[in-house]
């Protein structure tokens, strides 16, 4: 099946093997365009359902199970995979009640090998880098991208180069990039400036960029929805709610839904809701202004994974909203951390940015946009251990400007049996200040 790179604005096409990230004619973003009519085999639900539970690669991967709609002509031997995907879809009545709907399911992408959804995009991006013969790959990152890229680059025998800002880095993510052998550059700049720098350096030195401006990344990220809808027996929900930072997932989801509908895998398009943090809300502001005058923002939020003020996939995300009749919402850091505490407390857990899905769904229900009887699919993007400082700070009541309404305080005691028994009794008495306690 022939595939090509195609500009989303002027439809100019380029060969798949060109190293190019934007249209040379108009500067527009690029899609990987597949001609499904020329597929070697019929693309049907049964094709993918028959591969469920496969033990051998590539179909044991939750990305490559959908190879025909991700990268149809790649040879199996060229695929760089860690068995990513195959993440759980959780029906969570307590979270649904918090959000104000009868049915809410959460797709937990924190269960991927490096702990975030980025692995789905990195298996396809690094696979294409291998096909191109690249020896070095690079990314700007708030943390999750760097962790994933370093891992997949190491597996492929490539050097992974990471551009990191020098403040507000979640240590769980930074540690992964270092552990996996990535070349880490801490730069006195925010993510948006680092994104510009990595593209300039890559062009000068012949390094392959693996941020989500790379269209092959988004082909892998499409499979979050392919897999979730397969888990829902191909019955489309009413809403899909996703956090929005650099807008790669939002963009990939729009493309995934359109392709699934065109192929007859689903019979209708769900509506997409993109949720941003109030302190990093350029898409929300643009949406509220009728998409007339986009202005980047100086991003500031506790949800570091979406702390991005000038998202590179803006136009693809707008396209996804137009295709699906979607909406954009914003939530405060307080709302994010309270939703996170709820998700954590039921034994699932997630990083702060993930909780935008639940916080945003709750806010959209309050506004009457999502109805109680609607079926809502939310996406959790990262593992709870990605940002342990935020979790501990919340429950210790040490986060500036945030009141922990779902706090689980740490207890402390001397090595004294009676004191411990008193603490753990059904109705413990408050301890004097000098004897510990919360």
What would you say the CATH architecture of the domain at 89-110 and 217-385 is? 3-Layer(aba) Sandwich
Mean pLDDT: 94
Distance between the termini: 62 Å
What sort of overall outline do the alpha carbons produce when their principal axes are compared?
globular
Instruction: Find the CATH topology of the domain at 89-110 and 217-385.
Output: Rossmann fold
User: Whole-number radius of gyration?
Assistant: 22 Å
Number of E-state strands: 13
**H/E element order:** EEEHEHEHEHEHEHEHHEHEHHEHHEHH
| Assigned CATH class of the domain at 89-110 and 217-385 | Alpha Beta
Structural class: alpha/beta
Low-confidence stretches: 432-438
Count of individual helical segments: 15
Sheet with the most strands, sense and barrel status: 6 strands, mixed
Helical fraction equals 25-40%
Percentage beta strand: 5-15%
Instruction: Give the strand order, joined by hyphens, for the main sheet.
Output: 4-5-13-10-11-12
């Amino acid at each position: 099946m022939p595939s090509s790179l195609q500009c989303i604005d002027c439809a100019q096409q380029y060969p798949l093997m060109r190293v190019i990230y934007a249209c040379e004619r108009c500067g527009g973003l690029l899609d990987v365009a597949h001609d499904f009519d020329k597929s070697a085999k019929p693309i049907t639900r049964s094709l993918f359902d028959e591969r469920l539970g496969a033990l051998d690669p590539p179909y044991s991967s939750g990305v490559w199970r959908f190879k025909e709609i991700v990268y149809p002509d790649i040879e199996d031997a060229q695929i760089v995979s860690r068995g990513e995907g195959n993440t759980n879809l959780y029906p969570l009545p307590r979270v649904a009640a918090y959000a104000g709907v009868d049915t809410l399911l959460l797709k937990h992408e924190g269960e991927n090998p490096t702990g975030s959804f980025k692995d789905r995009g990195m298996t396809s991006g690094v696979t294409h880098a291998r096909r191109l013969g690249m020896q070095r790959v690079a990314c700007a990152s708030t943390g999750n991208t760097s962790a994933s890229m370093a891992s997949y680059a190491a597996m492929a025998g490539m050097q992974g180069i990471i551009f990191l800002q020098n403040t507000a880095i979640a240590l769980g993510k930074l540690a992964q990039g270092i552990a996996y052998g990535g070349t880490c550059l801490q730069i006195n700049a925010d993510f948006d400036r680092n994104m510009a720098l990595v593209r300039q350096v890559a062009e000068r030195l012949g390094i392959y960029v693996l941020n989500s401006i790379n269209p092959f990344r988004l082909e892998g990220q499409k499979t979050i929805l392919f897999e979730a809808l397969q888990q829902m027996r191909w019955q489309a929900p009413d809403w899909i709610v996703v956090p929005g930072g650099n807008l790669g997932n939002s963009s990939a989801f729009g493309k995934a839904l359109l392709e699934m509908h065109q192929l007859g895998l689903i019979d209708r398009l769900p509506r997409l809701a993109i949720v941003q943090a109030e302190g990093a809300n350029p898409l929300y502001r643009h949406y509220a202004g009728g998409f007339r005058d986009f202005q980047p923002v100086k991003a500031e939020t506790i949800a570091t994974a979406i702390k991005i003020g000038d998202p590179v996939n803006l136009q693809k995300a707008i396209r996804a909203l137009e295709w699906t009749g979607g909406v954009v919402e914003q939530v405060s850091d307080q709302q994010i951390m309270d939703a996170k505490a709820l998700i954590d407390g039921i034994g699932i857990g997630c990083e702060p940015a993930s909780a935008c899905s639940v916080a945003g769904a709750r806010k959209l229900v309050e506004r009457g946009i999502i109805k109680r009887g609607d079926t809502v699919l939310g996406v959790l993007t990262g593992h709870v251990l990605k940002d342990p400082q935020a979790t501990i700070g919340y429950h210790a009541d040490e986060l500036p400007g945030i009141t922990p309404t779902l706090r689980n305080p740490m207890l402390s005691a001397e090595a004294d049996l009676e004191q411990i028994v008193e603490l753990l009794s059904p109705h413990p008495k408050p301890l004097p200040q000098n004897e510990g306690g919360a």
